[in-house]
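Hi C.,

You asked whether I'd gotten around to modeling the 264-residue construct. I have! Everything is below, sequence then structure, no commentary in between.
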Amino acid sequence: MKNNPLSQKAVKKAVLVNSLQHPLVLYSAISGILLAASSIAFQLGNIPLIISAGGAVTAVGSWFFQFFLRTDRYSQTYFSEIHARLSREKKQKLSKLRIELKQVKSLGGIKQLELLEVKYRNFEEILSSKLSPTEMTYSRYLSIAEQVYLAVLDNLDKIFLTLKSISAVDKSHLTQRLNTLEKDGSEKAKKEQETLNRRLVLHQQQLDRSSDMMLANEHALTELDEVSAKIASVQMNKGRADVDLDLAMEELRRLAERTDQYAR
């Protein structure tokens, strides 16, 4: 995914920004800069400069402590914020899609929506049985699963728009009209046939596109089950537990990226 908020780069950037905004870091730096500027501007001597240097040292030391020794805390806060945002997006899209898929009579899409909710809840329960919801690892893994969830929802939204675009096309009427025109054989009839055939081709292309996205969702749902099964089988009392969990989550991350590509 482009600009993946859960990438290592994005997390480090968030930790850096938040650590720089810590009051002790921010105020010490600002106070030191203002004191140094005032000392130079009004020729107050060396003492204010020494004090401002102390402020700079305090700011740097505080930032070092915040960035390097409290990384987990900042990361946990960041993942919690991402989780909350993704949850809000999820609820909004769910409500909208339930209505839209019924409008275009996409029974397959409605079924996938139901399965997605069941499978995500199942994943969440399994993850909770292995990790504490207060752990940073739990928040990170759950947020990745939510990205898969949202990618599938994006696909379902595309499916709705695709089917909506051809909902006014009456294929039965077009077929009957083409049969009539074929018997006519006039030049005017041939031109109308060409126009109606283009409409039928477009109709079929959109149906094929919808089917491809439905298939992509089926793959995603299956792989979500497989990752859930792998997490369920992880033995937490063994040394390989972290490695096994990371491997399962790496698969989930790749799944989110693949599914997201189909939604474009």
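If it helps when you're writing up: The two ends are 11 Å apart (CA to CA).

Thanks,
B.
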